[in-house]
Design brief:
- By secondary structure, the protein is α+β, with helices and mostly antiparallel strands.
- It has one domain: Metallo-beta-lactamase, Chain A.
- The chain is built from 3 helices and 7 strands; from the N terminus they run βββββαβααβ.
- The chain has a 3-stranded mixed beta sheet with strand order 4-5-6, with no helix packed on it.
């Protein structure tokens, strides 16, 4: 619980400063883990997934999750969305750890990516407030943030 004097009306999350841009294929070392930077644009132009070297388990973020993907944000990369889904469908994984919802296995990954490629899943439009406030990001990299 927040301490005395905490006010939700004035609380703000301070932005992090960029330490360095990440590029597709970079490695992030975390003690006993190493994560690869994989750039499958679609949801946004700068989306990343982070497969763990040792296990191959991808931390997928907003790239793929078990729900209707939003691919109509101001910075969505619609032309790249289908090829990104095709690449994901070919991954040899035991489990996917998405940024939203529950983990899922390889068969569900194939179902979700197939639905995105064929258009069966459709695109979920972003709420008007999100579209109005979004910034267009065309960079093909993402950022490591630090304090």
């Amino acid at each position: 619980m927040p301490g005395p004097g905490f006010d939700t009306r004035t609380y703000q999350i301070e932005p992090m400063k960029t330490i360095r841009p990440l590029q597709n294929g970079d490695t992030i070392g975390l003690r006993d883990r190493a994560l690869s930077v994989c750039h499958p644009p679609g949801h946004t132009a700068a989306c990343i997934a982070l497969p763990e070297h040792r296990t191959g388990v991808p931390y997928a973020g907003d790239v793929i999750y078990d729900g209707r993907l939003i691919v109509s944000l101001p910075d969505s990369a619609l032309r790249a969305h289908r090829p990104s889904m095709q690449r994901l469908a070919r991954l040899d994984v035991s489990v996917v750890r998405p940024g939203h919802g529950h983990n899922f296995g390889p068969e569900r990954l194939r179902q979700l990516t197939r639905a995105q490629v064929t258009g069966a899943a459709g695109a979920t439009p972003a709420p008007q407030a999100e579209r109005a406030g979004g910034r267009r990001r065309r960079a093909r990299h993402c950022h490591i943030y630090g304090g």
